[in-house]
Amino acid sequence: MNKIAVAALTMLVFSSPSYALFEPLFDEGTWSAEMNGEWRYFNDPGEFGQSKSAFSYSAQAEYYVGWNDGDDSFTFTPFVRLDQIDDNRTHLDLREAYWGHVGENWETKLGYTRIFWGRTEFLNLVDVVNQKDFVEGDTTEKLGQPLFQLSLVHDVGILDFYVLAGFRERTYQGEDGRLRAPIVIDVDNARYDGVEKNNLDLAVRWSQPVGDNLEVAVSIFSGTNRDPRFDFNYDLFDPKLIPVYTRMDQFGLELEYIYEGWVAKLEAIAVETPDESYTAAVGGVEYTFDAVFDSDIDVTLITEYLWDERGSDSAGFFEHDVGIGTRITFNDEQSAEILIGGIIDFDTNEALYSIEASRRIGESWRVEILATVVAERGDQELGQTVSEIAKSLADSGFTTDAISTQFAINLLSDIIDEVGLLALFNGEINTYGEFVETLQQVQRLADTDRKLSILESDDYFQIEVKYFF
Fold first, then answer.
1. How would residue 25 be classed by pLDDT, with cut points 50, 70 and 90?
2. How many other β-carbons are positioned within 10 Å of the β-carbon of residue 276?
3. DSSP readout, 389-457?
4. What letter would DSSP give residue 294?
5. Per residue in 414-431, pLDDT tens?
6. 3-class DSSP assignment, residue 17
7. Between the CA of residue 120 and those of 116, 270, 301, 304, 432, what are the distances in Å?
8. What span, in angstroms and rounded, lies between the C-alpha atoms of 427 and 413?
9. pLDDT by residue (tens digit) across 246-290?
10. Which domains does the chain have, with CATH numbers?
11. CB atoms closer than 10 angstroms to residue 409
12. Helix/strand/coil (H, E, C) string of 168-209?
């Protein structure tokens, strides 16, 4: 939700006539809030001149009120972040603002809210209702989604119906931000191919325990794909990637089997878009050692395999990777936890490792620490001349014949405008640095076998201090 819309909604609610209407809700409800100071330090300066460190501040409030003996409720959760260096990361969002009603064997929600589907630890393939708030760094953070939800609760399971009104575009880092692609993503000029931005999306999910140990969920989603594809704008002086959103139909399956200390999990999807049809899955096991060495500490070992039928043609990093991790839960008054994990691609030897730790201090403070390291980046042999790069792009399949023709026309026009017509004949284009550097970034993005290589110089340490009241 953009800043103007949120401000307008706030003014509407708190204006005199509106406040009189909603006054009973605000008089009888309860507020809680969280303030967060975050500092990131990167091991190296940014590849494109970005700072090695940055500070940001975020705040999130929650208001809740119930009436009719708790059968009706209203939840309001605004969120704001201010970032020192990245204008795109500075944003305001309405995480939740919904009315809920509970009937005898049914429930409804109407408004902005966040829905979670999934079972696995490293990647939740089935989780498609909400758009990701990608600038937050934590890929589990979501933008609020306007929807109507109807849940039917029976012995044969819980059946959830969703009507999603209005699409939320994904947030991305800006030019001065870290953890960004080599070419900036143009969030202001996103395009839609075969869908309208204000489409109504539909989803349904059935979930049910089977026996004492197994839980099953099946879901269907039809609407705008939350993961855009990207088109290059072919402007060598102001290169940008343009997000393009298309239609998607997805069938999802979730399984979780619990036996003593063991937990087996599976998420699988079958997806059809105008461009492709594919299947993908994440499956693995966890085992928990309770009361290690007769202490209060529990240690959980996690192993998962991430697979995508498209292989290296998949948009994400995880197409044939193994995830390993250890979660240490201290079960103390401070709610201390440590999670150590890594994702390894044994085909390319690329690996990404992270450690997360959190601990409460007193009644109102909490400290969270995150460190992320790309241990192995696949080596990319980048072309040094326009002709070498063009050949590499053609071999990669990154451009279709039609796009290649347009690319060549734009490239020649840019060179003539900048260095003159003679450059085409005396070989200057092979050494003209600005063009070559831009084309090398396109080549890096086109190399689907070396996806972690785009995260140059982005190993970082992050500490967050949160205050709750």
1. low
2. 12
3. HHHHHHHHT-S-HHHHHHHHHHHHHHHHHHH-TTHHHHSGGGT-HHHHHHHHHHHHHH-TT-GGGGSTT
4. G
5. 555 555 544 444 544 444
6. helix
7. 12, 17, 13, 8, 48
8. 16
9. 999 999 999 999 999 899 999 999 999 998 899 999 999 999 999
10. 3-380+447-468 (2.40.160.10), 386-446 (no CATH)
11. 11
12. CCCCCCCCCCCCCCCCCECHHHCEEECCCCCCEEEEEEEEEE
pLDDT of res. 354? 93
Smallest CA-to-CA distance from 59 within 93, 87, 26 is with: 93
Q: Which two tokens stand for residue 125?
A: 């393939």
H-state helical runs in 250-384: none
pTM: 0.83
Give the containing element (helix H, strand E) for 216.
Answer: strand 214-224
Task: Count other Cβ atoms within 10 Å, centred on residue 381.
Answer: 10
Closest by CA to 136, choosing from 370, 339, 302, is: 370
Q: Cα–Cα distances in Å, from 55 out to 59, 81, 184?
A: 14, 11, 21
For 386-399, give one letter per residue: b (16+ CB within 10 A) or e: bebbbebbeeeebb
Q: What is residue 142's DSSP assignment? A: B
Structure tokens at 412: 């020649």
Tokens of 329: 């839960």
C-beta pairs of 156-162 under 8 Å, 24+ apart in sequence:
156/208, 157/206, 157/207, 157/208, 158/206, 158/207, 158/208, 159/204, 159/205, 159/206, 160/203, 160/204, 160/205, 160/206, 160/207, 161/203, 161/204, 162/115, 162/129, 162/201, 162/202, 162/203, 162/204, 162/205
